[in-house]
Amino acid sequence: MQAASRFAKLPAIVWVIFAAALVHSPALFGEWLWDDHSLIEDVTLGLGEIWTRPGALAEYYPATHTTYWLERVTVGANPFVAHLVNLLILLGIGVMLFGLLKRLNVKGALLGTALFLVHPVNVEAVAWASQRKTLLAGLFGLICVRAYLEFRDRDEQKQLIVAIGAFVLAVLSKTQIIMLVPVLPLLDWWRGRALDRPGWVRLAPFAVVALVGAMVTVQMEHRVEPVGDIAALTLVDRFLILGATYLDSIWHVLSPLGHSLVYEPATDYVRFGLLGLPLTVLILVAAIGLRGRNPSLSLVITSSFLFLLPVSGLIYFPYMAFSPATDRFQFFGNMLVIPGLVAAAITTFRGQYTQVAIAGWVAIFGLFGLQRSSLFADNEKIWTATAERNPKAWIAHENLGLIAKESGGGRAGNYLDTGGRLNNAR
């Protein structure tokens, strides 16, 4: 009875963290996936080389690769350890996000945090070992925001230094987080703390870090030249892709179904954009129009768009060879969008059982998150699910062929032929 009583007195966030750990636990036993081999398992670089040789790996994210180096020199390159560290970082993000939402007096902070942690759209960033860059950038980004808010409220210079330092580490983990720079003044506006001229000057270090990070990443990624359909994309095509990927990201948050490791190719998103771009423009115009009546919704819409902008297809990046869209690209925006949806639901539906209904919503999404996490426990399962969801994913067929070949399966040739045909057709 005493033990039960002690458990009952645990803070609610502890139970949320436990539930999130349970949802993501199947992926702990997953294998190395896709580029995990070239970015983690087969890497022999020393710590100094990770920081001083930008071209030594396919990406220059030295803060992220320092964590892999620490694992390698302590326990060796082990997929279980890598996945466990990813999960621990996610849980740390959950604690930080909950504290930040409470500090900002966001309604339903606990439920918003819970939905973010268990949502199937965020499973990929945790279950894929080499996506630790997304998690680390998210964690350092939250530390940056927390310190920045402390600086703005108390004018403590040391908090500004902490915020800048955390932002540097975030950019050195994954460059996409640079869009936090325009989001910070949006947060000030939302809180009724519009920046004066000295305030804008103090944002200059963040802008400089973002610019340097963007320049390094663009230089790194343009070592891989676009080919085929990607090379033929016009500026109009890229704007159509931008509209389609943003609309796609909204759907991936609203629905627990249809998530994939690889989505449709860029040419399909050009067609989707014929509808997606006008709708995206309408959504953004509405967000601007709502800034007086509903600043919270305006903030969520605008910020989610900004975070997706660097990886929306408007600017070339090598992953576009597979698809311009992926779940992990919307991770940063989801930290605002998902709690924002929960807060909007609580504000709109003020009934007695509103929070109970939202808790049920979280539980349903958690079950789908658990199901998606279980796919990552086995490479054949995740690639099979990818090929079923997107038959055009040549990389899925190719990997299924290699898996079948290693196991002596008779379908290896069929998979490899299909993958080769789809790849050559790009």
List key phrases describing it:
globular; mainly alpha; 22 helices; 426 residues
Summarize the structure.
The protein has helices at 2-8, 12-24, 36-41, 47-52, 62-74, 79-103, 109-118, 123-127, 132-154, 157-171, 180-190, 197-202, 204-221, 228-231, 235-254, 266-289, 295-308, 331-348, 354-375, 379-389, 394-407, 412-424. It has 426 residues and is mainly α. It is globular and about 65 Å long.
The number of helices is 22
**First-to-last CA distance:** 64 Å
Cα radius of gyration in angstroms: 22 Å
Number of strands: 0
Q: Estimate what percentage of residues fall within beta strands.
A: under 5%
Which H/E pattern describes the elements?
Answer: HHHHHHHHHHHHHHHHHHHHHH
Secondary-structure class: mainly alpha
Q: Characterize the biggest β-sheet.
A: none
Show unreliable segments. none
Overall shape: globular
What percent of residues adopt helix (DSSP H or I)? 55-70%
Mean of residue pLDDT?
90
